[in-house]
Amino acid sequence: MASPDIDSPWLCAANESFGGCFNMQIEEIKSANVLNVLEAPTSSMSDTCNIPKPPPYPNKLSKEANNCKRILGTCSVPQEIKDTWDRLFKEVYGADVYIITDRKSYVPAHCNVLSISSPVLGNILQQSKVKDGIRYIKILGVPCEAVYMFIRFLYSSCYEEDEMKKFVLHLMVLSHAYSIPSLKRICIDFLEQDYLTRENVIDVLQLARSCNAPRLSFICVRMVVKDLKTISSTEGWKVMKRANPALEQELVESVVEADSRKQERMRKTEERKVYLQLYEAMEALLHICRDGCRTIGP
Fold this sequence. Notes:
This is BTB/POZ AND TAZ DOMAIN-CONTAINING PROTEIN 3-RELATED. It comes from Salix purpurea (Purple osier willow). Residues 95-163 form the BTB domain. InterPro entries: BT1/2/3/4/5 (IPR044513), BTB/POZ_dom (IPR000210), SKP1/BTB/POZ_sf (IPR011333). Keywords: Metal-binding, Ubl conjugation pathway. The longest helix has 47 residues, at 245-291. This protein has helices at 16-39, 45-49, 63-74, 79-91, 111-117, 119-127, 144-156, 161-177, 181-195, 201-210, 214-226, 228-231, 235-243, 245-291, and strands at 5-6, 97-100, 106-109, 130-131, 134-140. Strands 1, 2, 3, 4 and 5 form a five-stranded mixed beta sheet that branches. Helix 7 crosses helix 8. It has two domains: 1-13 and 79-195, Potassium Channel Kv1.1, Chain A; 196-298, Serine Threonine Protein Phosphatase 5, Tetratricopeptide repeat (Alpha Horseshoe), CATH 1.25.40.420. Strand 4 and strand 5 form a beta hairpin. The protein is elongated. The protein is of the alpha+beta class. It has 14 helices and five strands.
């Protein structure tokens, strides 16, 4: 999969009166405390009996903490706000940026929105050329539909489920390249739960390593270890074998290591079975010698 091509040089390159009052208050408090101590009667058993019981210990999470957690859990951006930002993107009112994509198409956007959403895009826009009040930047190497979805997400965090299925890998690349962690998390969750198959696991594995997604990478390796025979016959494996033989060797070694661990677990299981049988035999012999029992029942 080609990485996004960006046409930007960014890639190359307190007063005395108050103190007196405070001291006076302290002296008054101290004198009051002394009088209370002098006037306080000595303790007795009757006094101790009248002491109320202490309150029970609080739970691990107090009610206030639970309420705060509940409020945070229910807080979300109202749909009306999302719709407003989505409409701003689609109607392109006052757009001052044109994003050129493959097939010479472009996506209009707003410079302030892009700069706030992505620090990478902000740097690119600062260094881009302005022509007739419009800035032009390029995002190449991915389908124009994926670029459209990506820019729309920067406005409203909205996306369509069917489109996500088609362009999740491209959106993963864009979210990593332009530092959009929220979109990256969505792509990773989607890949882990719905999209990962034997046919694309090798492509997803290479993408996960390129985009610094260790959990997704681990899940892909685990799938390969479980079904190497089927996955090794896919087109993705064949391409990976030619382009990245070191990864192929690593995966084969992972499978061998997993098999050796499995054999070791099986050996220990068999040893435990033998030890259990020997233990039961010794218990039977002790029973015969101690009790003189000639028949051993269950």
